[in-house]
Amino acid sequence: MTLDNGEKWFKKGRTALKIQYCPACEKYIFFPREMCPYCLEVKPEWKETTGRGIIYSYTTVRRSSLSEFQDRVPYTYAMVELHEGIRIPTNIINCPVDRVRIGMPVELAWIEESKETIPVFRPAP
Amino acid sequence: MNISGRAAVSGMAELKPEIDAGGRSSLELLSEVASRAIKDAGLRKSDLDGLLVTPPAEDSCFMWPAQVAEYLKMSPSYINMVELGGASACAAITRAALAVTAGLCRHCLCLSGGIWDSQVFNSQEGKMAVMSRAEIDFELPYGPMGFNSGYALIAQRHMYEFGTTVEQMAKIAVDQRQNALANPDALFNKQAISIEDVLNSPLIVDPIHLLEIVRPCSGAAAVIISRSEEAIDMPNVPVYLLGMGEACTHNSIIYSDSITVSPVKWSAARAFAMAGLKPVDMDLLSLYDCYPITVIVTLEDAGFCDKGAGGFFVQSHDLTYRGDLPLNTHGGQLSFGQPSYAGGMSHVTEAVRQLRGEAEKRQIKNNRLAFVNGNGGVMSTQSSLILGRDKHDVR
């Protein structure tokens, strides 16, 4: 998806996790939108996040019907709540699936793929 | 204006769900079930002047209401398609009630169902067809398992916040199977299952096991809604629409303010307010059940128990047709099967059967009032109904 600023969410080489923000509503917005969905008056700006948060919920995928994930099972599909208060979908890496817990502090990590850089999370020290 | 009790179910029919529709098309299934519902209502086809359809599971949706009307040679004065996922069937009933009450039509046929094609269902295109652009762009790259993982996120969080147990969730599948054993039309009606059976079935997405996941299949259901003063002179015991309420807060569960609180909180409250009734008044619960956690969250948010107490609530009640809290007496979709959008209609047809006193082996004794809930997406769009045998129960 092409975002408002012309950047792709999974743009290769990305190093910062930016989330849309409406200065009028003082609210973060995810997924990205043309207009702030709270007021429908303001075009959101992009703000860099701390990249830190907690696991809000998760599930261990034991069997995947998606071809590119079949050799990755079991893996953790999760919702992370960033310190900024917004929740995003992600994977948890560097953590055995049976150690993942709701409330666990996590920090941003990146998975480099051939054409994309994908933001994921790992346990925070 | 309160339209409570002004419209009624005057006819209905349902096909036995099948894994394989034997090469028949969705339109063929819909015409068969429509024919049976018309007969049930004691009407002729020419009496039907309203048509509401839900999308076909696999066929092209384009101009689907007109495709159905053309196939049935209907020329309705009121026609539409309702697409609210699993809530579509209940929502169609509400829209039909509005239409007959407003005089846009006299007898409105609500048609739901179609064929299930495992190849389409399991294909990449089939998966993408039920995803929004946002889900494809921001969720799919992380490998979610469609609805399974969405409900798994809710179940996991519900266990964390409220101490709900896997045994409590499994019990819903167990009790509903007991109900299915008394339903010759249910897909899974041969063998009882135990809590151990459920928990020993493969974990698909933690904490959801295989026996806690709805089985898509082929089938169809039809319900005819008429004005109450007409329904009273028709052959069946009228089942009145006493309360209707809807709510929607999100599409993907990622964007729900709290994933353990669903919009049932508002849809049910609106339906009860319209009917002037309370959860405790209900004799039968017919709740959308794609997974057990759906039932637990619905029970809580509709007010049958406190928030967070849903697990304990199902553990401490007998949910079978013989029990103190009859719930999904047809087996629920978990055991009846999920014939596409008609899965949501099965909760309506079962409530009508019970209220008419036609549920045979599984007939409940107190059968005056039923709460029916349709749920679309991942606890997204909700459509709640209160059905009753008596029009004036309420005021």
Structural features, described:
The complex is a heterodimer of chains A (125) and B (395). In chain A, 0% of the residues lie in helices and 41% in strands. By secondary structure, chain A is mainly β. In chain A, the strands form 2 sheets. In chain A, strands 6-5-4-7-8 form a 5-stranded antiparallel β-sheet, with no helix packed on it. Chain A is globular, with a radius of gyration of 15 Å. Chain B is an alpha/beta fold. Chain B contains 15 helices and 11 strands. In chain B, helix 2 links the parallel strand 2 (50-53) and strand 3 (78-81). At the A-B interface, strand 4, strand 5 and strand 6 of A face helix 6, helix 7 and strand 5 of B.
Oligomeric state, counting identical vs distinct chains: heterodimer
Give the overall shape of chain A. globular
The amount of beta strand of chain A, in percent, is 35-45%
CATH architectural grouping of the domain at 52-123 in chain A: Beta Barrel
Layout of helices and strands, plus pairs?
The complex is a heterodimer of chains A (125) and B (395).
Chain A: E1 18-22, E2 27-29, E3 45-48, E4 52-61, E5 75-82, E6 87-92, E7 105-112, E8 117-123
Antiparallel strand pairs in A: 1-2, 1-3, 4-5, 4-7, 5-6, 7-8
Chain B: E1 7-14, H1 26-41, E2 50-53, H2 64-71, E3 78-81, H3 88-102, E4 107-114, H4 118-122, H5 124-129, H6 133-138, H7 146-162, H8 166-181, H9 195-200, E5 203-205, E6 208-209, E7 219-227, H10 228-231, E8 239-248, H11 264-275, E9 284-287, H12 292-301, H13 310-315, H14 332-336, H15 342-356, E10 369-376, E11 381-388
Parallel strand pairs in B: 2-3, 2-4, 9-10
Antiparallel strand pairs in B: 1-7, 1-8, 4-7, 5-6, 8-11, 10-11
Helix pairs in contact in B: 8-12, 11-12
Summarize this entry quickly.
Helices cover 0% and strands 41% of the residues of chain A.
Labels describing this entry:
heterodimer; A: 125 residues; mainly beta; OB fold (Dihydrolipoamide Acetyltransferase, E2P); five-stranded antiparallel beta sheet; globular; B: 395 residues; Peroxisomal Thiolase, Chain A, domain 1; nine-stranded mixed beta sheet; two-stranded antiparallel sheet; 15 helices
